[in-house]
Design goal:
Elements (H helix, E strand, L loop, with lengths): L2 H11 L3 H40 L3 E4 L3 H4 L9 H9 L4 E16 L10 E8 L1 H4 L19 E5 H7 L6 E7 L5 E12 L4 H6 E5 H8 L7 E6 L5 H9 L8 E4 H4 L1 H8 L1 H30 L1 H9 L4 H37 L1 E2 H4 L7 E4 L2 E4 L1 E2 L5 H27 L3 H6 L1
Parallel strand pairs: 3-7, 4-6
Antiparallel strand pairs: 1-8, 1-9, 2-3, 2-5, 2-8, 4-7, 5-6, 10-13, 11-12
């Protein structure tokens, strides 16, 4: 394209600076919304996905077929060492976490406390060292505070109800898998605020062997949580697990099937992306179409003169389309810079939904069995910037087409009299 075309385009954009700035501002605002809001949603949904596929269900959950309905202590996955060895042979498996659950009564271990102080609780037997990894039930718990042989880690809400503190003892009363009564005392090694709501409210977390001994479950577990390399490959990992001989007949669910409600909520993000891109299309179309129409009518005499001097109609079309394209790209560039700045700053500081909603002193909310933090850290993704650029480019060309065609069809003699 000749240099004169660029020169004329820049000159025309500067003719009515107020109108040009208003159009650029409208497009910039739309792009800022696309980048900032989608960054916020990316951070929020990634955080939700990490919580769901972390300590709660992993990428794949394995249970006895009747466990979800009955929750009986004897509905177990048997031959646990053999099962774990088979799972660890799969190339896509990164971690395997067997767990045991049992409803019990718990009370303060101090004899001076009355029996009425007992409260509903749940034993959660885990491979404690493995569960301290990111995404585990005991994530962040120091090694010297793990349950061990005679210890327990207690959920924060349960500890508050029973008045427990680290170093004290918790009394657990229940029955084993054969329905014989059983009771024991465990030292409280730590009190945790878990991302798993049932652990936070009711959990007495024991080392797996201690839980197996208390419930008379030798080499058995109620659930196995498997993590692979990528949550998006959970269905493939589940298919591989179903083929393992030791797990024949077990209930093997990828996280989407284990938590369909949360999977649906996470999938909604794609629809919201379309909504905000539509907002950007509308802002760009309105700003550019209005500016180009006004500019075309104001320059009718000029276009007529150009056509009379031999300028081809196609060049007139190029002038108007290029003007619209530059207008759109200036707006999207400004919006991208502003949106990126917003995401980077809030991605570092976080956005506290609780504080914005007037909820003070509460760090998370229980939702479908997981505690989801009120503090969200937006995440910058380049694709949203590129999506905005492509949307504005297309919109600029489309919005400029009608006024460009009108200018190209002008009759030179008639246009020069206007």
């Amino acid at each position: 394209m000749r240099l004169s075309t660029w020169h004329v385009t820049w000159r025309n954009l500067g003719r009515n600076r107020r109108r040009t700035l208003l159009a650029v501002a409208a497009i910039a605002l739309g792009q800022t919304l696309v980048v900032a809001v989608n960054g916020l949603m990316s951070g929020s949904f990634d955080q939700m996905l990490a919580t769901v596929t972390g300590p709660l269900v992993g990428h794949v959950r394995i249970q006895h077929p009747e466990w979800e309905k009955e929750r009986a202590a004897d509905l177990t996955i048997d031959h646990l060492p053999e099962v774990l060895a088979a799972l660890e042979t799969l190339p896509d498996t990164e971690s395997v976490s067997p767990r045991i659950y049992a409803a019990v009564l718990a009370a303060h271990g101090d004899p001076s406390n009355q029996p009425a102080d007992a409260d509903m609780a749940m034993i959660v037997g885990v491979d404690a060292p493995a569960e301290t990894a990111p995404g585990g039930i005991l994530e962040g718990v120091p090694a010297d505070c793990l349950p061990g042989v005679r210890g327990a880690v207690v959920g924060q809400v349960l500890a508050n109800r029973l008045g427990l503190e680290p170093g004290q003892t918790v009394a657990v009363i229940g029955q084993d898998a054969d329905e014989f009564p059983n009771s024991d005392l465990f030292e409280v090694r730590a009190i945790v605020h878990s991302k798993v709501d049932v652990v936070n409210r009711l959990g007495v977390v024991l080392e797996l062997e201690s839980a197996q001994r208390f419930l008379a479950l030798e080499d058995q577990a109620h659930e196995i949580v498997v993590h692979g390399a990528d949550a998006r490959e959970a269905e493939s990992l589940a298919a591989s697990i179903r083929k393992l001989g030791p797990l024949a007949g077990a209930r093997v669910l990828p996280w989407r099937e284990a938590m369909p409600e949360l999977a649906s909520i996470i999938d909604m993000k794609g629809w919201w992306d379309l909504v905000f891109v539509a907002i950007l299309f509308a802002a760009a179309a309105a700003g550019i179409a209005n500016t180009m129409m006004m500019s075309t009518f104001e320059r009718t005499h000029e276009f007529g003169m150009l056509l009379a001097l031999g300028t081809r109609p196609t060049r007139v079309v190029r002038l108007i389309v290029l003007e619209a394209l530059l207008l759109g790209l200036m707006g999207v560039a400004v919006g991208s810079v502003l949106g990126t700045a917003v995401v980077l700053v809030t991605g570092h500081t976080g956005i506290d939904y609780g504080a914005l909603g007037g909820v003070q002193g509460v760090g998370d909310v229980a939702f479908f069995g997981v505690n989801i933090s009120y503090v969200v850290y937006p995440k910058l993704e380049a694709r949203y910037i590129l999506l905005g650029v492509m949307a504005v480019t297309v919109t600029s060309v489309v919005a400029a087409t009608w006024p460009a065609l009108l200018a190209a069809r002008l009759e030179p003699a008639k246009a020069m009299r206007l």
